[in-house]
Write a structure and sequence with these properties.
Layout: E1 3-4, H1 9-12, H2 15-21, E2 26-31, E3 39-44, E4 56-59, E5 75-79, E6 83-84, E7 87-92, E8 102-108, E9 114-115, E10 128-131, E11 137-138, E12 151-154, E13 160-161, E14 174-177, E15 183-184, E16 210-214, E17 238-247, E18 253-266, H3 284-288, H4 292-295, E19 299-303, E20 309-311, H5 312-318, E21 330-336, E22 339-345, H6 350-353, E23 356-363, E24 372-373, E25 384-391
Parallel strand pairs: 4-7, 5-8, 7-9, 8-10, 9-11, 11-13, 12-14, 13-15, 14-16, 16-17, 18-25
Antiparallel strand pairs: 1-2, 2-3, 3-4, 6-7, 17-18, 19-20, 21-22, 23-24, 23-25
């Protein structure tokens, strides 16, 4: 039997919670027919009165706390209807499917604009969730602890992604974004684009999955040196954006060229390093010894983009401080229009730079072809970049 709860809402949820969710809307709950039956709430906006004047539907019950062990309300495969009683389904409620430990798949129609916080948290058997174009907002921890989820694709319409979205998703391998970079929902980042560490972390560890983006989208080009996924090849180095994807016939995804990235390489082998160079670093002999020749091949504690240990002489070539492990040769990408611009640091004086050769190399793919010099005006023809430096 239908339950009109506009008049008794205070007995179901604390006033503070209701003020947060639906102020001062009238709401009416019911369940869909068929199996499984889905709880939904008709929402009558301010200025409108009575269930007949409801404007839209929110799907799922709101849970103030996690169910004690599991929420067995839904199991198997769930298809969210695009409309109920002629009203569009606009949102999946906060914690609507939390701890539905027998839920295996969900289809979210194009009418849904928002997935609430913790909506699918702790759905341990959930392996597939399909979003039709229309979703714009994903709430905090929406898929946290979905331990069977291996892949998820967000349509172009997504614009906001909540914090902690994939925490605990230990089997997650691939996250596809077909549109521009979503905006963060954490307060300190509401005006910035990008993806935060809190979104892509597993119980505090760094990311362990690939993030795929479209080459022609924007908002992804920003330094992303922290938390490079452990399962990605280490020579992807300083990651500026991620793997590119494109839409092909039938709405499927086809991986194309890989990651837009920059790596660096210090070349040359045995180079002539003036003994006076060491005098620039007061702690040099304490760290590497007083035998200058022998010190040149000692490790500095730094690594290159491929994970190889660097030696003292490579700091001379790069123009970096061998006694400071944080002072490294770095390369970055910025975008000027549709043209990638590769730069590096440290930038040496004109006299010192003239003693070195810097080369920008590019390639279409890490799987085919090889590094080739990037001609002026042709950087956009490449997806991977490398900067090398060596003494003349």
């Amino acid at each position: 039997m239908k339950r009109k709860i506009a008049k008794i809402v205070a007995t179901l949820l604390p006033a503070a919670v209701m003020a947060m969710l639906y102020p001062p809307y009238e709401i009416y709950t019911d369940t869909t027919s068929g199996d499984p039956q889905l709880v939904y709430t008709k929402v009558c906006e301010p200025g409108r009165t009575g269930e007949a004047n409801a404007s839209y539907v929110i799907m799922g019950s709101y849970y103030q706390t996690r169910p004690a062990l599991a929420n067995t309300s839904y199991d198997g495969d769930v298809v969210i209807p695009p409309s109920i009683g002629g009203l569009p389904v606009r949102k999946i409620n906060e914690a609507a499917f939390i701890m539905c430990t027998r839920l295996r798949s969900v289809v979210v129609p194009a009418t849904v604009r928002e997935v609430g916080a913790q909506a699918f948290s702790d759905c341990w058997l959930l392996t597939n969730i399909t979003f039709e174009a229309g979703i714009t907002t994903i709430g905090d921890s929406a898929f946290s602890n979905c331990t069977s989820l291996a892949s998820i694709t967000f349509p172009k319409t997504l614009s906001r992604l909540g914090a902690g979205c994939f925490q605990g998703c230990v089997e997650l391998k691939d996250v596809y974004f077909l549109g521009n970079a979503p905006r963060l929902m954490i307060p300190s980042m509401t005006d910035k684009s990008g993806l935060g560490e809190s979104i892509f972390r597993i119980y505090g560890y760094n990311e362990r999955f690939k993030v795929h983006i479209n080459r022609n989208t924007y908002g992804w080009i920003s330094p992303y040196e922290k938390g490079v996924p452990e399962k990605w090849p280490v020579d992807f180095g300083y990651m500026q954006a991620h793997e590119t994807v494109e839409e092909s016939g039938g709405g499927t995804l086809a991986e194309v060229t890989g990651f837009v990235t920059v790596v660096t390489e210090i070349k040359g082998g045995a180079v002539a390093v003036p003994a006076t160079w060491a005098a620039n670093f007061p702690s040099y002999s304490a760290k590497f010894g007083s035998d200058f020749t022998a010190s040149l091949t000692k490790p500095t504690g730094k690594k290159d983009a491929a994970g190889n240990s660097l030696q003292v002489w490579q700091d001379y070539v790069a123009g970096t401080d061998p006694t400071d492990v944080s002072d490294t040769f770095r390369a970055t990408i910025s975008m000027v229009g549709d043209e990638p611009v590769v730069s590096w640091e440290p930038i040496l004086s004109a006299e010192e730079a003239a003693r070195r050769t810097y080369t920008i190399l590019g390639r279409q793919s890490f799987y085919t072809g090889d590094w080739t010099p990037v001609a002026a005006g042709h950087a956009k023809d490449y997806n991977f970049f490398k900067v090398t430096v060596e003494m003349k």
